[in-house]
Amino acid sequence: MKKWIAVLIGLLVVGSATALLMSNRRKQEAQLELTRRPLATTVAVARVQQRTFAEPVEFIGKTEAWREVQMTATTQGVIHDLYVRLNGLVRPHQPIARVDAELTEISLRAAEAALRKAQTDLIRYETLYRENNVPAADLENARLQGKNAESQVLTLKKQLRDAVVKAPIGGTVTEKNVEPGMFISPGTPLMTITDVSAVKLVVAVPEAELTQFWPGRRVPVRFEAYPGQSFTGTVHQIRLKGGEVGRFPVEIRVTNEAKRHPLRVGMTAHVTLTAAQPTTALTIPRTALITQQAQPAVYLFRNGRVAHRPVETERNAGEYVLVRGGLQPGDSVVVSGTGELRNGQLVQVAPEAFRQSAVRRNKTVTQ
């Protein structure tokens, strides 16, 4: 009896050991199977949403001279004196040149003598006409001679005044076409005077944004030549005639006061204002955009896998990108961990705390 009990106990021990070995083997096989499976990459995702932006709008333009006069001669003669130099400053009505007027002075003296004679003749003919000693035609001819002589004197006096050329405006001589000793005649280009006390910035503004500009409004201006420096301009006028694309030139006056940062004609400047009409558009975080390829794309997250999806974008708006096509509201896009992803890859979504920190880290890198 004892022998059978011992045999039974032995069988039980052997069976238990066998069962334990089989269980351990199944566990090892299961673990081996897990190691053979591809590991899911951890990513952070965000939803595609409609957002409304009252974002800044930038207008770019070029500077022009506030006032500029191209002077031409109104008399003829040889330039005797020239009182200005290129890039020199002039005041309004300042003499800038003198034309040799010796012949004009001689002609003026002769014309004044002829005028005195014509006036004397007119008095004599008027007396003779009252006495009926000359016909009316002779009196009218004497009057005509007097008027012609007077006109000749006035013309020569003007030529004498024009012999001293004066600046019509104050400014800088930006072009000089004559030198002492040159002969000039009416219409000969003399010089160009540019008023640089201020510059005229002309920006093209879409008609939808014209309500933001009115004469007298002060606007911030930034010049590419002086990064980090801010200027203030005043809207001067909005031109009535717009361009073919519905943009209207707006003139902005910027005072040229800073000696360390002089404003010149032809500079590029930017005017930044808040948009008149808020923009509502489909958006994704900037960190979701894959820009290494020719066309922008994102990784769309759906059912535990990612799909490569090309998208059409408009522009950046802060930390977001405006999307024109390729996505729908509510879609989920990968915003972190896109570097090693491939189309159709298995992924797992990071917990919220990890996802937020990952997005912040990725945003820091992209910025």
TrEMBL record:
An annotated Gene Ontology molecular function: efflux transmembrane transporter activity
Protein family: Belongs to the membrane fusion protein (MFP) (TC 8.A.1) family.
Protein name: Efflux RND transporter periplasmic adaptor subunit
Gene3D superfamilies in alphabetical order: 2.40.30.170, 2.40.420.20, 2.40.50.100, Helix hairpin bin (1.10.287.470)
Gene Ontology cellular component list: efflux pump complex
Residues of the CusB-like beta-barrel domain: 201-276
Pfam families: Beta-barrel_RND_2 (PF25954), YknX_C (PF25989)
Listed InterPro entries: Beta-barrel_RND_2, RND_pump_MFP, YknX-like_C
Coiled coil: 101-159
Listed NCBIfam families: RND_mfp (TIGR01730)
Keywords (A to Z) from UniProt: Coiled coil
Keyword Coiled coil appears in the UniProt entry: yes
Record lineage: Bacteria, Pseudomonadati, Bacteroidota, Cytophagia, Cytophagales
Residue intervals of the YknX-like C-terminal permuted SH3-like domain: 281-349
